């Protein structure tokens, strides 16, 4: 095999979904955006569809792929619409869209919609002072408002979390004053771990794939779902003074090469046991291994991320995108 292999445990994803639902005591809106954080959105969604009330994705394209794969649950598109063609596709596939500003609200006429409110993250969402007018316009324009949501920017900070929860409760009341059946959802994995306001549903992402977002500890027994392997493609009796994209730090008796590099989503600076910087599609390591040997190069995305001042989110998305996937029940 000429690229890394990501072995993904669907059993662990189901176990994680169960643990999160048990902790939250609320229905799950499972976040499978960015190809389920590199785990494969269609396969993950089909596996846990019986455990969730809804899925959330980033784009209309992602939602359309889920529906085309036979996913029967509702699918919420979190990124606001920006053009008519996306609105038409959302309607065709029966997706739920997000209105987060007055320009994006203009594309939502006739569509199932959740209102995003900005409670402090300042990413997407109507500000609290805009929500009343947004709801009024939604009613006038025939927008089918079915939900209202926000996102906690720092759920581990109790004071910041409480302030955001208060703002969200006020905004949600304004939405439900016009659309009384609107579903409320605020907490992602961090919010669930923090014990924040769970509203009508929770919206876990990272936790489904086995990790707690920093600075939270994994107190729910979440199990990482992805391991990445690479294959030995070369054994070398060293010649000259290099080792990958760097001068050799010492004299090596033998080197071997794995088919994994920064082109597959890993950090060029090193890691994975490399003796120097990673190449785009190769990792040079010390010693000799039989040609074709399968070597586990990523088992704990959080630990690997910490070595590179990154997060498990970044590692999983990049590594999953660069690998061939195999699903292990």
Q: How much helical structure, as a percent, in the residues?
A: 25-40%
The helix/strand class is alpha/beta
Shape: elongated
Strand element count: 13
**Tally of domains:** 2
* Helix-strand topology string: EHEHHEHEHEHEHEHEHEEEEHHE
> At the third CATH level, what is the topology name of the largest domain?
TIM Barrel
Residue fraction in strands? 15-25%
Give the rounded overall mean pLDDT: 96
| Biggest β-sheet description | 6 strands, mixed
Written description of the protein model:
With 329 residues, the chain is α/β, with parallel strands linked by helices. It has 2 domains: 10-209, TIM Barrel (Alpha-Beta Barrel); 226-328, Lyase, Ornithine Decarboxylase, Chain A, domain 1. Helix content is 34%, strand content 19%. It is built from 11 helices and 13 strands. It has helices at residues 10-24, 33-38, 41-48, 60-68, 84-93, 102-105, 128-141, 158-178, 189-194, 301-307, 312-322, and strands at 5-9, 29-31, 54-57, 74-77, 97-99, 112-116, 144-149, 183-185, 226-236, 255-258, 283-286, 294-298, 324-328. The strands form 3 sheets. Strands 1, 9, 10, 11, 12 and 13 form a 6-stranded mixed sheet that branches. A 4-stranded parallel sheet has the order 5-6-7-8. Strand 3 (54-57), helix 4 and strand 4 form a beta-alpha-beta unit. The longest helix has 21 residues, at 158-178.
């Amino acid at each position: 095999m000429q690229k890394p292999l990501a072995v993904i445990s669907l059993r662990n994803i189901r176990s994680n979904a169960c643990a999160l639902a048990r902790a939250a005591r609320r229905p799950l809106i499972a976040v499978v955006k960015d190809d389920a954080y590199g785990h494969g959105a269609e396969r993950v969604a089909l596996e846990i569809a019986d455990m969730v009330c809804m899925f959330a994705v980033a784009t209309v394209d992602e939602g359309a792929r889920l529906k085309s794969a036979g996913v029967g649950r509702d699918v919420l598109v979190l990124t606001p619409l920006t053009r008519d063609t996306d609105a038409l596709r959302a309607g065709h596939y029966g997706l739920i869209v997000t209105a987060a500003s007055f320009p994006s609200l203009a594309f939502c006429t006739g569509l199932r919609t959740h209102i995003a409110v900005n409670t402090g993250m300042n990413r997407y969402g109507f500000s609290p002072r805009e929500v009343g007018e947004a709801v009024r316009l939604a009613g006038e324009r025939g927008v089918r408002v079915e939900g209202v949501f926000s996102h906690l920017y720092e759920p581990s900070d109790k004071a910041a979390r409480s302030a955001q929860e208060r703002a969200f409760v006020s905004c949600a009341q304004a939405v439900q004053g016009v659309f009384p059946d609107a579903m409320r959802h605020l907490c992602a994995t961090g919010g669930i771990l923090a014990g924040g306001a769970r509203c009508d549903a929770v919206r876990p992402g990272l936790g489904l794939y086995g990790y707690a977002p920093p600075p939270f500890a994994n107190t729910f027994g979440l199990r990482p779902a992805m391991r990445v392997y690479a294959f030995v493609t070369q054994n070398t009796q060293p010649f000259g003074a290099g080792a990958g994209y760097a001068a050799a730090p010492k004299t090596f008796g033998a080197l071997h090469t794995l088919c994994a590099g920064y082109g597959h989503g890993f950090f060029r600076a090193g890691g994975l046991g490399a003796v120097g910087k990673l190449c785009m599609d190769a990792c040079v390591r010390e010693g000799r291994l039989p040609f074709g040997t399968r070597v586990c190069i990523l088992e704990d995305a959080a630990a690997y991320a910490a070595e590179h001042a990154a997060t498990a989110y970044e590692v999983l998305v990049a590594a999953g995108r660069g690998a061939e996937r195999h699903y292990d029940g």
